[in-house]
């Protein structure tokens, strides 16, 4: 079985930026703390996961389809620090020096690229099968988990403490499967992305509703068809039922915003050759950035 690793690059560099001290290159004077963290994580991923294929997904600067349908999407996020912006731009050089191909698409987020690539690769596996490992610091991608064939390798703390989520691990964390995470966010919302959900319903109630009724479509069918309201009322307080009915449109719109797309306009094919580290190119970049400890680590990689 072959292994395809998909990198949620923006999420990784954001994590590195906030987890590590700020420092600069003595040669160029540019900020490099997040680039060092990203490089460290990539070396760790390659060493531990031993990918046959690896691809990096990036966000683009243009508004996405989510911004176009909801102007307030991510509106409450503070503007990124200038040092972070510089390193986000420079991170393309780091990824390319590793020999990792980059994918993005106008109007779509990196998550949607990950979802699309995972879907296309899952449907067209190589002989012997394919395991897909998504590497991210963003828990939103857990909705892409599929049994143990598509798993998420994510960071718990800092850039070294990692955990792999398969379907059982997701159910252990949430109480329901990966496919219901967008429904969950449709009810409770997601403040980090300014997704409103159903006003007045928090994480605990949303969890109980999803565990009991599953997808939003089933929950609202129960509420609205025949004597369903009475049936639901035996389990759910009248106040919650009224909130659900009053904010049905918000619930479904929030679910739509929280759902990772799997139809971004890309056509992914597995590379004809297996991944190998571009050691000489990477060594030159590490020396330019002043990452002397990583230069030494390359020889042991």
Structure in words:
With 301 residues, the protein is of the alpha/beta class. It folds into two domains: 2-176 and 261-300, 5'-nuclease (Rossmann fold, 3-Layer(aba) Sandwich); 178-258, Orthogonal Bundle (DNA polymerase, domain 1), CATH 1.10.150.20. 48% of the residues lie in helices and 11% in strands. It contains 14 helices and six strands. Strands 3-2-1-4-5-6 form a six-stranded mixed β-sheet. Strand 5 (150-157) and strand 6 (161-165) form a beta hairpin. Helix 1 (9-19) packs across helix 2 (33-49) and helix 7 crosses helix 12 (248-258). The longest helix has 17 residues, at 33-49. The radius of gyration is 21 Å and the shape is elongated. The model has no long low-confidence stretch (mean pLDDT 90). It comes from Candidatus Giovannonibacteria bacterium RIFCSPHIGHO2_01_FULL_45_23. This is 5'-3' exonuclease domain-containing protein. InterPro entries: 5-3_exonucl_a-hlix_arch_N, 5-3_exonuclease, 5-3_exonuclease_C_sf, DNA_polI_H3TH, FEN, HhH2, PIN-like_dom_sf.
